[in-house]
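User: Hello, can you help with two protein structures?

Assistant: Certainly.
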Amino acid sequence: MPYTHYIYTPRSTSDIKTFRLRIDTEDPLFRGKKKLKLTGRELSDIPKVIFQLHELEILDLSPERQSCLNFKLLAVPPGICRLTNLTVLILDTNELTELPEEICQLVDLESMALSNNLLDHLPKGFDNLQKLRSLHMANNLFEVFPKELCQLENLEFLDMSDNKLTVLPVSISNMKNLHTLLLFLNNLSKLPDSLCEMTELYCLWIGNNNISRLPQNFGNLKNLDWNERYTSSVLDGNPLTYPPLEICRQGVRAIDRFLRTSNLNGGQKLVDDTTWEKTEEDEAD
């Protein structure tokens, strides 16, 4: 007799009570919030009854142990839009290729985790999630920075590391409250000048890209913690020449001094304490 997986999908009123008994309010990360976590086979076939648990505030649909990785979420059911009290939605480490538009109806969401999936775009209407403050999208397949994100003016934390991004939109500066932007391990060749308007940034990681120059007004980002908490993810792995990496490692003040002095000296760059040489742009002229 061939072996078959038995998938339990509760449907009765008693099943609803069973899931209500599983609601956790003692998670130290979300103390006092009503949280439900699904695991194992439940991720392969989401029990539809959970969408009747309208009181839920935290929903975790992410496998977390090696033994659970055989069961992953392939699609988010549209019925998720019925959980209108959700503030946190955890969907990372699955095999999602897209999100349903219905997810954009969860307008009270404050945090969403989408890392370690197969996403390359966001659904239409994602910019409806105006209460989002934290968004994790690392290790996906984004080649284009989703412009919907630029409309999320309350976003404070964004992780798009380990994707395939080649360019950032000018409108990224609309995210004026962003304090953490993680973009390491992408294919960026430059940063837009508008990034220098994001003066609330204190954590910016752009290591392992193809960036050779920083924007001229980069010194405006005076709150960056580069000199205090420099790690390899901040800048290492880029072909930086303007300013050189050794200048950048000294922090934003050193970068600003270099860029200002270079500009005053007719587009030349400092080779050492006394020597200047023309930049590539000057040589091209």
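That covers the first. Now for the second protein you mentioned:
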Amino acid sequence: MGLAAVLDPRYKMVGVEFQFKKMYPDPTECSKQVDRIHQLCNELVNEYTQQMSFDVSHVSVGVGTKEVDERGNANLFEGDDYMVYLKRRNMTRSSYVNIEFNHYLEEKIHPPNDPNFNVSKWWKNNRMKVKVPAKTAKDIYAIPVSIITSESAFSTSGRVISPHRAKLKQDIIEALMCG
């Protein structure tokens, strides 16, 4: 849910920091939790970057074979040097996407009280400006919070924490209750 908040242009990391300051009165713990969400965002964006780079380089690598064309010329993309170039380019692209994501975080926050605001439409309109975060947001917002009603989630005579759930960590219980 923290990732979804960060990917909402009305809140971003500022909204997460605001809510976590309410949840965690200890500044050290609050900072730790905010950093954890920021790290998760970076990891997710990096994962999407690698996946999108793999999709592109996988297609390009198909071109990089040692075939000879119809005129008898050797293919210009033969050898390991092209593969090394692709790997370096993907690394550079990855750092660019981190800059792209950080730029998104630093942009002005959309007014939170705009009744006509639609997160999905915002990402669709801005997908060319921040490609990887837009793809990430599209997938994150496609995940339903819950597919069952909250009453049936804990149907053991109205108790939220039953003996078989007593060993769950506090943050997991919180997430279950919120979901």
